[in-house]
């Protein structure tokens, strides 16, 4: 696509990746993504903000046809989908200097072999004049790597946020046109890469409160021309209390665990507790991560395999431990044939979760009446805990 005008002398460049379905060999991309770069032509200097994933570098280079000079390239984040084609841009504009944080400079040297003399590092709050336009650099560590920053264009009140507030959607829309769709994609994005750093992101949101932000231009997804709602959404995801929701991921081999999960679900719903159910043999892990953002309780359902949890249940526990959701309670339900250490193994896999572990319910073989009674008791306990903590 050609470069697209956002405001006077400010343009969207980059590429739409319609076909990509997996990010970092881990994160599902059901709707593809975009790699957004931005060009600002000041009265004295011209600057490129970020680049694109290397396989799409040719598209970015073609969009720069007619641009006689680039004085600066901003690298907000060293990951390749944003900075991987910077060496190609430097080949085209060898006089350009790469502006980044001190930590990002070291990463870009390691990852992309950008020569050290190509860099200018900036401190938190430092400004740069392009003549009639002024950029302020704001360090935002752990959004979502330790070296990240964002840039605020003072005269136009635009925040160039890189991964902050991003969403994976392949679209030709320049601005957000379907808020519901973007909300879901942005929440998925937050859940998959931002949620582990909630406490630090809180400080970064507070940093931005002193700025008059009329537009947010992220490096993935559409531009927010009315950005208040996405900032409020981030505040809720980061600061909001857990909700009256149980996330119930499970796997069942011979239906015993499924019988228990189905009974627990019905019992919870009858007590006014919302349930998000995930069959781990078919689950989109992005959807599971989204559900974990708000969950008050996590209950893992698993059969016993070779004396421990099913590998899919173990992966689920590993994922939850890595994402560090704000859930406050956890339990385990499942079945076994002759014995094992399912509970001990799973409990040992979640050291990052600050949760109260509720009494698990395990049955030998198929569940019997006493097992269903125990599941009802677990549902009662969860409903009571949610009520006591004011989960809504």
In total, how many domains does the architecture comprise? 2
Please tally the β strands and state the result.
21
Task: Find the structural class using helix and strand composition.
Answer: alpha/beta
CATH class of the largest domain: Alpha Beta
Helical residues, percent: 25-40%
CATH topology term of the largest domain: Metallo-beta-lactamase, Chain A
CATH H-level superfamily of the largest domain: Ribonuclease Z/Hydroxyacylglutathione hydrolase-like
How far apart are the first and last residues' alpha carbons, in Å?
46 Å
Shape: elongated
% residues in beta strands: 25-35%
Task: Outline the biggest β-sheet.
Answer: 7 strands, mixed
Low-confidence stretches: none
Average pLDDT number: 97
Second CATH tier, the architecture of the largest domain: 4-Layer Sandwich
Strand order of the largest sheet: 1-2-5-6-7-8-9
Helix tally equals: 12
Radius of gyration: 24 Å
How do the helices and strands line up, and which of them pair or pack?
Layout: E1 4-7, E2 10-17, E3 22-23, E4 27-28, E5 33-41, E6 46-49, H1 57-63, E7 72-74, H2 80-83, H3 86-92, E8 97-100, H4 102-112, E9 119-121, E10 127-129, E11 134-139, E12 149-153, E13 158-162, H5 179-194, H6 198-208, E14 215-218, H7 228-239, E15 245-250, H8 256-270, E16 274-279, H9 285-294, E17 297-305, E18 308-309, H10 311-323, E19 329-336, H11 342-347, E20 356-357, E21 361-364, H12 369-388
Parallel strand pairs: 6-7, 7-8, 8-9, 13-14, 15-16, 15-17, 17-19, 19-20, 19-21
Antiparallel strand pairs: 1-2, 2-5, 3-4, 5-6, 10-11, 11-12, 12-13, 17-18
Family: In the N-terminal section; belongs to the zinc metallo-hydrolase group 3 family.
Pfam family, one: ODP
Protein name: Flavodoxin-like domain-containing protein
């Amino acid at each position: 696509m050609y470069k697209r005008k956002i405001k006077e002398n400010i343009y969207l460049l980059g590429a739409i990746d319609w076909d990509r379905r997996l990010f970092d060999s881990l994160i599902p991309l059901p709707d593809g993504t975009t790699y957004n770069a931005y060009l600002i032509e000041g009265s004295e200097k011209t600057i490129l903000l970020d680049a694109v994933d290397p396989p799409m570098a040719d598209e970015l280079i073609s969009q720069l046809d007619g641009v006689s000079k680039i004085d600066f390239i901003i690298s907000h984040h060293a990951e390749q989908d944003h900075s991987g084609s910077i060496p190609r841009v430097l080949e085209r504009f060898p006089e350009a200097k790469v502006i980044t944080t001190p930590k990002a400079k070291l990463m870009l040297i390691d990852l992309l072999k950008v020569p050290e003399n190509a860099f200018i590092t900036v401190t938190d709050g430092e400004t740069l004049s392009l003549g009639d336009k002024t950029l302020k650099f704001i360090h935002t560590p752990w959004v979502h790597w330790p070296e990240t920053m964002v840039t605020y264009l003072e005269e136009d009140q635009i925040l160039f946020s890189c991964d902050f507030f991003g969403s994976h959607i392949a679209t030709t829309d320049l601005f957000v046109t379907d808020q519901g769709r973007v909300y879901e994609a942005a929440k998925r994005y937050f859940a998959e890469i931002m949620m582990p750093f909630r406490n630090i992101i809180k400080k970064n949101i507070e940093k931005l409160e002193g700025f008059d932000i009329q537009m947010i231009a992220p490096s993935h997804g559409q531009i927010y021309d009315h950005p208040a709602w996405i900032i409020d959404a981030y505040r809720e995801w980061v600061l909001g209390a857990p909700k009256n929701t149980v996330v119930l991921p499970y796997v069942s081999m011979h239906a015993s665990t499924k019988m228990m999960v189905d009974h627990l679900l019905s019992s919870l719903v009858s007590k006014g507790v919302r349930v998000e159910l995930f069959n781990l043999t078919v689950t989109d892990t992005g959807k599971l991560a989204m559900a974990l953002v708000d969950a008050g309780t996590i209950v893992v359902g698993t059969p016993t395999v070779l004396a421990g949890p099913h590998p899919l249940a173990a992966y689920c526990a590993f994922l939850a431990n890595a994402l560090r959701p704000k859930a406050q309670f956890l339990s385990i339900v499942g079945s076994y044939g002759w014995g094992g250490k399912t509970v001990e193994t799973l409990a040992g896999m979640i050291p990052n979760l600050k949760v109260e572990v509720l009494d698990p319910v395990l049955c030998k073989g198929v569940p019997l009446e006493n097992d269903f009674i125990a599941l009802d008791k677990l549902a009662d306990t969860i409903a009571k805990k949610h009520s006591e903590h004011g989960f809504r």
